[in-house]
Amino acid sequence: MRIAVYSGSYQVPDSFENSSEHIFNLCGGNTGNFAIIYGLFRMLDSAASVVEIVPWSIDPVYVNENFDLVIFACANMLGPHTDLGPVAPMLKAVDLPIIAVGLGAQAKSISDVVEIPAGTRQWLDVIAEAAPSGAPNIGVRGDFTYAQLERIGLSERAIVTGCPSILLNLNPELGAQISGAREKSIFRVAVPAGLPYWPELMLLERNLVQIVESTSGIYVGQHDIDMIRLCRRELNKIKPEILGHFNRYIAPGKSEAEFERWCQRYAVCFNSAPAWMEAMKSFDFVVGARFHGIMLALQAGVPAGVIAHDSRTVELCQTMAIPFRLYQELKSDFKASELYDLFPFDEHAFSMRRKELAERFNILLAGGGVYIGDRYSGVLNS
Predict the structure, then answer these.
(1) Number of structural domains found in the chain
(2) 292 and 195, same structural domain?
(3) Could you report the per-residue pLDDT of 14-40, keeping only the tens digit for each?
(4) Where's the Polysaccharide pyruvyl transferase domain (predicted)?
(5) Is the pTM of the predicted complex or chain greater than 0.70?
């Protein structure tokens, strides 16, 4: 089986000699995507002779001649913010079976109805029509996204799988490992940085920054390009007005020079999912508004919790039994010592969801002749 994976990269090994734009472009605009793509790559690499990551713009003729199956790695692509119309004709020119993985809908609340642009609907139809078998060929993040496809008549092609990152760690006892880690006192905290354009989260973000400082933690940049630059000491590439906004949002009261030193001490950016997970093992808790930054900590066996602020984060947490709190539920001055109480962890629910979602991924991929049961036998048989 030869598989073409339409996605960004799961690692940027030459990041040390390249700019932040290089990382930003290869990861698809958010380093949190490393978690998605690496999780998917690990699934496929165990079950296929060839797995090649290719760009959306690849020549369909090359794909038709060199592969047997297309996997389209998705994110929060359903909503008025994204029109996939330009991608649909290129995908339609691929005369191969197609499976989409990790599709999510984006809205302010999970009670909303998501508007799907005509171009994105066309893209969905192309994928649905290219199903390799009678089995579902669109893996979605949760019930909210499934409901959006049901509304437009595509529910028979969909199955709730969550995100591939839930299965990065093959240890069937991962839930117990996380529970055991929660028995330790919290000394160091890492924070996946939010985006300084979310005014409703500003006070919480400032509090997280104070927790980072008080626990000798780190502040992990994921998105946008200027946040990545901030974390890689490329402040000279950030427009002064944007840098000033970051300064006021993250650390008000610090001068420009003080803020630059703060970034040098606390702000980091990772170039791969494995490096990120390994680094998280030095911390006692990871908390913030970036879902995949939290997921990578959990997959490393480190307690963590999501500050949920929209349908994307709520849906992912509910689907995969990830500890979360709505941002409105949190005081803006909570302490590191309160994190276990604020983000309780249900070991049994987490473990059962991992098993259930592994079974669903197996169904989704087996429809295209990809069998992942051997690699995930520990989770499937737990």
Answers:
(1) 2
(2) yes
(3) 999 999 999 999 999 999 999 999 999
(4) 30-311
(5) yes
